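#struct-pred

JT: dropping the chains for the assembly here, can someone run the whole complex?
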Amino acid sequence: MPPPNTPEEGLVSTTTALALRPLIQGESSSAVVDLRALEYEGDVDENLICPICRLPLVLPTITNCDHVFCQKCIVQAHGLNPVCPVDRLPLKIADETRSAPKIVHNQLDNLLVRCPNSPRGCCLVVARSLVENHVTRYCDKTLVPCPHPSCDKTVARKYSEKGCLHYNVKCEYCENLYEKANLEEHQDSWCANRKKSCELCKTEYVRHKQDEHTKECPEAETPCKFSSLGCISLVRRKNLDEHARLCEYRVVGPVGEQLAELQAALKALQEKDQLKERRIKFLENKGFSVPAANTSEGMTDISLPENTPPADPAPYESRDQYFLSLFETMEAKVERLSSTLNEVEGRHSVMLFNETLPIKDQLTEIRSTLGVLGMHVRWLMNFRLQERGRVGTSSPNISGSLAGSQDNNNDPTLTRRLSDNLREHPPRL
Amino acid sequence: MAASQKRITKELQECMDLPPAGMTISLASDSDLSKWDVVLAGPPGTPYAGGVYSITVTLPAEYPFKAPQVNFATRIYHPNVTNDSLGNICLGLLKPENWKPASRVRAVLEAVRQLLVEPNPEDPLETRIADEYKNNRPEFDKNVKSYVARYAKASK
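RK: done, full complex below.
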């Protein structure tokens, strides 16, 4: 039984991850994967090799004298000697270097590398730009912290769902103790007794993978490929082809294949038919059951299948199917409701928006009018106060009563007005 | 430092697969990448022809940012190589102000060989030998050959 995260799955996911990648990685390349430690597949063009580290460029940086280096390398070299490491022209790292053209980045991104987990058995070869994504998200062989909270060891992602595997077990072939997490690897490649010679074909195979060997052992006896048509002979696998040529049933072979195809088609059709029939019956039944269901809701609905048979003979093959169809209609209903809900919600928000917009406009208008009014009042008040100051000192009384009449029950404004008064007076006195 | 290790491994591989003319290259010890042993046959057509020189190349920890150190382990009569057991070489390429991280050991070794073909008496370590090279070539050739006979004969 394959683990949930089979390599094939990983492969598929990395291709879908292609679209995600620019968002995830950006410029800050590889905190997890050291691009310099990667093993490159095939020869890399000499022009893509950094002259300093002699590795394919990482974050290529170009100087004003047109030489390209890894960003890290040029920074390091510049720290020791502030000249271009190729032609020794003076170089200012801040002004005279910049990121290499996009085409160089693209070429580097497309270089094929092996997954850094290859020593642990991942044999994926992938574009360099995708390797980090593969390792951090999909590679089965990446070491992740042990899921057990009190265990601080790491374990391959493949096993991480099986709980803590850091306990010792005895290898069944060599009697030594190994951690459960390492057992498979041990039995695959280290155990002294891991190899076994096949009794039939005499080739050596890894014990641990006996099942796989049995499936392909050339000496094992397997049924003829026409066994479904009636050939009963058992033949060694390596002789299968020969037998197929001579098998009496080979004449009917093509017919048999067609037969099998037809059978499969028939089965599919039958299933379809069944489904349709069920639907039809359900629809028929629904028409009948609606008035009954109206009287009291859920309970009658559920007991329907037992009640209805006299009127509608065998509406469903089983209760399960009845519930299934019930469920389907409910689902459809819910779907319809949610779409209506969405529609209503949309309409409401549009309405709300339409309503609030003029209100907002009016509000700002009112606010500005208020400001203008306030200005007017202030100007008038000032004007009055000045006038009164010119008339004489009896004015405070009048202004007091005026202020009082203006804001009867608003003390703060009153005091403000009075203080305004005071402020107004001293120069006059 | 992993990157520099990788570069050294790569350079060593290249040098071993396709050694520069007249040289064989090996590691002084298998565990240490920073010490190389080079055996150089004296270039034909020069007084050094017939001599077999062993050269040690020491790569500093900062390599390739610092120049490798190259010494003649075999004594040699040459204006640009100290005439003692240290065998220091005066090579423009290796001077700290001239060293470029982009240069490779292979280029250094080729330059050393070139130095035997064409000594550089203008920038000598041994002024006496340089003068002799400039002014009394037959005497120089004779001395070179006697050094070859004394120190640089291939071990049979």
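JT: nice. The interface with chain A takes residues 2-4, 6-7, 10-11, 62, 64-66, 97-98, 100-102, 104 of chain B (CB under 8 Å). Chain B has a mean pLDDT of 87.
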